[in-house]
Amino acid sequence: MQQPATVHAPSALWRAAPFVFVLLWSGGFVFGKLGLAYSEPMTMLALRYGLAVAVLVPLAMIRRPLWPVAAGHWAALVLTGILIQGVYFGLAYLAMKRGMNAGTTAIIMSLQPALVAALTPLLGGRRSGPLLWLGLAVGMAGVVLAIWSEGSLGPSPWGASLLALGALAGIGTATLFEKWHGFRTDPVASGLVQYVVGFVLLAPLAALTERMAIDWQPELVMALAYLVLANSLVSIGLYLAMVQRGDATQISSYMYLVPPLAMILAWALLGERLHPLALAGLALSAFGVYVVSYQTR
Q1: Are the CB atoms for 86 and 197 separated by under 8 Å?
Q2: Lowest CB count within 10 Å: 51, 235, 276, 288, which one?
Q3: Within 13 Å and on the Cβ side, how many CA atoms surround 57?
Q4: What's the pTM?
């Protein structure tokens, strides 16, 4: 029976993977918010997934990745695609389109480590010790401080907040499911399947619920280029590979760095003011990640 491929990477490059992922993932909030000014959320995501498939198909033809054979493995890829591309991105984009700013969205998504840490023992993972919870608490304090410094903790519509919480449930469930089923898949094969799933899921939804109007401005083209190449291809591939190779709680803990870095990128790219408290929050988040990483070694 053909076995799914195991992805190996040089140790030095692999150690840098979480930080590359965090940087690229942080930019996704900024460019996602930028693109939503020129397109509706489901339409934008369907376009994003369609472009990602167009890039991955020739790459798969050249690279010829090892595809899964078992029906259960295919089902796992499809379900992961639904959870990440449909539930997580779909609900997060809807929340931002309904008025939730990128900082508030990022801080809600950063609750993922606590969710994963609390539920991993139920799947037979390592127990969540006091030091791990201390690291999670410190990291969360840093995130709250960073977002609070920008005034992003103001009231958001309940609908947008519930959508963001649904997105959090999607990415948290996907992380736990990836660890539970234990399949290892070539990133190109996995990405291609998931983006096809995302496109098939959201394109009809966009046609049914939106006008599918797109204002083709340079800012939208730039946002789509980033979201397709950096966010959809590189960062999602890194995320899936890290989940397959590492402890679920340790991998998720890096998400604590996303909100502060998203604020820094928004300052650099969009001219938003960066408050000194945000830098203090970034330092706290980095320390929290270190504590969690030390505990889960």
Answers
A1: yes
A2: 276
A3: 8
A4: 0.80
For the chain, helix (H) and strand (E) counts, in that order, are 14, 0
Provide the pLDDT for residue 108. 79
Closest of 148, 151, 143, 43 to residue 93, by C-alpha? 43
Q: For 216-233, b where at least 16 C-beta lie within 10 A, e where not — what string?
A: eeeebeebbebbbebbbb
- Classify residue 141 by burial, with Cβ atoms within 10 Å: 0-12, 13-18, 19+: middle
User: What one-letter code names the amino acid at 251?
Assistant: I
* Per-residue pLDDT at 91: 97
Residue pLDDT, tens place only, 147-175: 676 565 555 556 788 898 899 899 988 88
Residue type, position 131, single letter: L
Q: What distance in Å separates the CA atoms of residue 45 and residue 1, rounded to the nearest whole number?
A: 36
Residue with tokens 């030095």: 12
Structure tokens at 70: 């078992």
Residue 212, C-beta contacts closer than 8 angstroms, at least 6 positions apart: 40, 43, 206
**Contact 264/150 with Cβ under 8 angstroms?**
no
- Residue 129 identity (one-letter amino acid): G
Contact between residue 207 and residue 45 where contact means Cβ atoms under 8 Å apart = no
pLDDT at 124: 65
CA distance 59 to 54: 9
Q: Is 129 in a helix, a strand, or coil?
A: coil
> Within 10 Å of residue 154's Cβ, how many Cβ atoms?
9
- Per-residue model confidence as pLDDT tens digits over 94-150: 998 987 777 778 877 877 776 777 677 666 656 667 777 787 788 778 777 776 765
Tokens of 140: 């969360």
Provide the 3-class DSSP secondary structure of residue 38.
Answer: coil
Q: d(Cα 164, Cα 108) in Å, to the nearest integer? A: 7
